[in-house]
Amino acid sequence: MRLLLVEDDKTIALGLEYSLAQEGFEVTICYDMASALEKISVTDFDFALLDIALPDGNGFDICRKLKMKGDTPVIFLTARDDEGSVVMGLDIGADDYITKPFRIRELQSRIRSVLRRTHKSAEDGTVLHYGNVTVNIAEGKVRKNGNDVFLTALEYRLLLILINNEGRIVTRNQLIESIWDVSGDFVNDNTLTVYIKRLREKIEDDPQNPTIIKTVRGLGYQI
């Protein structure tokens, strides 16, 4: 599996290259944005680890380029733990992020988790289970304790977006850009809050303490 590693700290990069090679990855290292963009133009990568702060740019632009070319899974490596950087990375399509310093085992676990999500085959079960709630994708039906749960078209669309990103944080901006109301108008921030509340009231046992659709404070939501 071809993995693109973009990291300007050569000590960190070489250490990661060695560890990831032991996991079976074919690692290509780039120390700046220019060389990374050049590699992307001629090589299809199966995974990417991107540092955010680079000497000639940032990992956000590299992520955008990867996502324009295909749906390459991306994890950001960042020394920044402020919400702005994290939210921006997730908004442009990153699958996860990890804050330096980190343990290599934690990174390996994150990579495996992202790969499981992104490589899950479409026919790998059309009935999904979340506690006492089941979602039958093929039939477009949601049941709780065996009883049908009526969801509006927008509520169901919202639930599917979260399901399709299972385990991954979906920011409010991503949700707002992905759903619209029945008249074709985009949903605004306040309306999204209302729909999340209604959806929880229908599928959660305790909407005030949700266990299915969880809030990741300052970032978004996660199934």
Automatic annotation (TrEMBL):
<dbReference type="InterPro" id="IPR001867">
    <property type="entry name" value="OmpR/PhoB-type_DNA-bd"/>
</dbReference>
<dbReference type="InterPro" id="IPR001789">
    <property type="entry name" value="Sig_transdc_resp-reg_receiver"/>
</dbReference>
<feature type="DNA-binding region" description="OmpR/PhoB-type">
    <location>
        <begin position="125"/>
        <end position="223"/>
    </location>
</feature>
<keyword id="KW-0597">Phosphoprotein</keyword>
<feature type="domain" description="OmpR/PhoB-type">
    <location>
        <begin position="125"/>
        <end position="223"/>
    </location>
</feature>
<dbReference type="GO" id="GO:0000156">
    <property type="term" value="F:phosphorelay response regulator activity"/>
</dbReference>
<dbReference type="Pfam" id="PF00072">
    <property type="entry name" value="Response_reg"/>
</dbReference>
<feature type="domain" description="Response regulatory">
    <location>
        <begin position="2"/>
        <end position="115"/>
    </location>
</feature>
<dbReference type="InterPro" id="IPR039420">
    <property type="entry name" value="WalR-like"/>
</dbReference>
<dbReference type="InterPro" id="IPR036388">
    <property type="entry name" value="WH-like_DNA-bd_sf"/>
</dbReference>
<dbReference type="GO" id="GO:0000976">
    <property type="term" value="F:transcription cis-regulatory region binding"/>
</dbReference>
<protein>
    <recommendedName>
        <fullName>Stage 0 sporulation protein A homolog</fullName>
    </recommendedName>
</protein>
<keyword id="KW-0805">Transcription regulation</keyword>
<dbReference type="GO" id="GO:0006355">
    <property type="term" value="P:regulation of DNA-templated transcription"/>
</dbReference>
<keyword id="KW-0238">DNA-binding</keyword>
<dbReference type="InterPro" id="IPR016032">
    <property type="entry name" value="Sig_transdc_resp-reg_C-effctor"/>
</dbReference>
<keyword id="KW-0804">Transcription</keyword>
<dbReference type="GO" id="GO:0032993">
    <property type="term" value="C:protein-DNA complex"/>
</dbReference>
<dbReference type="GO" id="GO:0005829">
    <property type="term" value="C:cytosol"/>
</dbReference>
<dbReference type="InterPro" id="IPR011006">
    <property type="entry name" value="CheY-like_superfamily"/>
</dbReference>
<dbReference type="Pfam" id="PF00486">
    <property type="entry name" value="Trans_reg_C"/>
</dbReference>
<comment type="function">
    <text>May play the central regulatory role in sporulation. It may be an element of the effector pathway responsible for the activation of sporulation genes in response to nutritional stress. Spo0A may act in concert with spo0H (a sigma factor) to control the expression of some genes that are critical to the sporulation process.</text>
</comment>
<feature type="modified residue" description="4-aspartylphosphate">
    <location>
        <position position="51"/>
    </location>
</feature>
